[in-house]
Design brief:
Blueprint: H1 15-42, H2 55-68, H3 73-80, H4 93-101, H5 107-120, H6 144-154, H7 168-179
Helix pairs in contact: 1-7, 2-3, 4-5, 5-6
Length: about 210
């Protein structure tokens, strides 16, 4: 059996215990995240839900267009997985996808993914009695134009069954490269500015919240 801590309640843990657990969990998380995301993407294959392509092809087409347009690698990865939340949270899929990817994306790209659902509504809300300008509530955001651009170029137009999309195998090296970057998110608590537990952590000096706390 692999080495384990001796306690059954976290209150009994020591600094050494949490340094040990953090290392194990971080390795586990990074090894499995790409596979988990591709699994979610694969689960969107099949039903087209009335569109010309299924949701997986829509996502691959989005990422392919972004890549061919010279977008940053993180935006290509974000485009590939921007709808994966639809598998488990169809009514707030944008927020779910953004939270999954947030540790590995810039603030701008995370914002784009989190809000792309309402920005996409510009193209159809009015046909269903809604307000196509609902996105205007975010007009003051510095990321407004980037999100509008994302939806225009990499979302609303990505339902073409004749488009030559790249495959998951094509995207995997890029996905693994982006996900291998140090998490930009610190833990949800304050630590001394010495670099946190073990002196290693995120760019803001806090350790990554990576000890399976929830």
């Amino acid at each position: 059996m692999a080495e384990q801590v001796v306690w059954t309640a976290m209150v009994d843990g020591t600094r050494e215990d949490y340094e040990f657990l953090s290392g194990i969990y971080e390795e586990h998380a990074r090894e499995g995240l790409a596979d988990s995301l591709f699994d979610l993407l694969t689960r969107m294959e099949g039903p087209t839900l009335g569109y010309r392509v299924d949701r997986a092809e829509h996502s691959r087409q989005s990422a392919t267009r972004a890549l061919r347009n010279g977008e940053p690698e993180e935006l290509v990865v974000a485009a590939l997985f921007h709808d994966v939340g639809d598998v488990i949270a169809p009514h707030n899929h944008s927020a779910v996808a953004a939270e999954i990817l947030a540790p590995y994306l810039s603030e701008e790209t995370t914002w784009v993914i989190r809000h792309h659902g309402v920005f996409q509504g510009y193209y159809y809300f009015h046909h269903l009695g809604g307000d196509r300008e609902a996105r205007d509530r975010y007009r003051e955001s510095p990321f407004f134009e980037r999100c509008a651009w994302f939806c225009q170029e990499y979302d609303q137009n990505c339902f073409d069954p004749g488009y030559d999309s790249l495959t998951d195998a094509d995207f995997r090296p890029l996905v693994e490269a982006v996900l291998s970057q140090p998490s930009r998110l610190g833990a949800e608590w304050d630590l001394e500015s010495s670099g946190g537990v073990g002196g290693a952590g995120s760019a803001d000096g806090n350790p990554v919240g990576n000890v399976w706390l929830r």
